[in-house]
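Trying the structure run again after the queue cleared.
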Amino acid sequence: MRRFRAQTAARCRQAWQRASQARCLMSGTFPKACVIALVVLGLLAMADLIPRMVIIATEARETSYWESWEEAYIDRESGGMGMWVREHATLTGRRWRSIILGRRSMKTFLHSECRDYLGEYAPLIRKELHHWEKTGVTNDLLDRSRDANVIISQDRVYLSHGAERARLIPTYHSLIQHMRLRVKLPDMVIPLNPGDSPLAPVRKEVNPPTPIFSFCKTPEYSDIMIPNTIEGDVFVRPAAKRAFRPKSRAGPKDQRMPKAVWRGSTGGFGGLEKGRAALLNLGMSRPDLIDSGVLDWDYERYGPDEGRLKEKMEFGHQVDKYKYLVWVPGNCASVRLALQLASDAAVLKIDSPELEWYYPLLKPYQHYIPMVANASWVSLEEAIGWAEAHQEEVAQIVENATAFATRYLSAKGRDCYFAQLLHEWHKLQRDKVRLGSNVEYTPEWSCC
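Done. Tokens:
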């Protein structure tokens, strides 16, 4: 078999040389195997190209983005040519099915695409929605949060007036539109938090609490956590901002600098009190432990920066230079954790009550190295000391973190969680969806 392939390849090369000299067709020596191979490749290319063209022609802007996300998600796999071909064939088949048969119901999508996730996501979603299990969600309850709502009615997406200018609404809206391309969304109202801090505190006098979807919360709030895609595209970023590597460098032979790095902002309100100030001070007093700095500085509030204000360092460069990445909360959870977990640097995560949807699945010393911090102190020296003395364990932690990001923070992992969340949320709604006069239809990305 190898000999046959070698002979065929040699004949193809010879035929190509003759064709380049305009003698191939006249001499009639172009091998039949090459002709057959070219025809097969052409047919496969057309089979893949036609559904792309049809889909992009009908859903141009949003589809082109999400299709490229999934393509890159497949291309970054390290499982060899067989896995690459299998994943691409699956994606192509799904496109053809969408064109010929139309979009599937939410239930069918979950049981065909997300079967492996349902059991893991069920307890997370049950915990998010338990406040409304007994009472359900009525229109009167939804009226409490009418400022920034996405309304799905008869498979069309509507947005409340003015919400398109709110901070995070375009991000959430594009995610909902993306799901609408994949499945038939049932009628529902999705109240959204436009900011990056939770809005619905749990209070005894307000039972059930006001339902609202946010990307982050703390245990004292009832906000329903929704995936955030601002930094969630962990496998689809420019080279300077992407840090995924099929083969990790972590371990005893790691040649990167044995210190931590952190770049960020002052964290808005309260951010410097959650460990950021301690990291900045440690960067001044112990530059052998951490390269820390912020990209903004309020001189009226904090006085002279004294070297704390630094130039931006691309994320890819951080991972290439240092062994350890520090995660610290800001206004709420810092969304960069998804990128850090997908890299081949170990994550030093400060323990904090801030949560994103996937945090309950993370485990210390399995996916990250824990630290504690307050306004003036952070246990960075202890964390790096442990890591340097346990390089084999660190290599396993990095491997676990990358596998976690691949499974849960990829497009498929995130879509399956979001679809399951919307499916359960829809079952809680008791009343028929009302559009009202304060909404407008938003085809494709017309909101943003």
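Residues 113-232+414-441 form one domain. Worth checking whether this holds up in the mutant runs.
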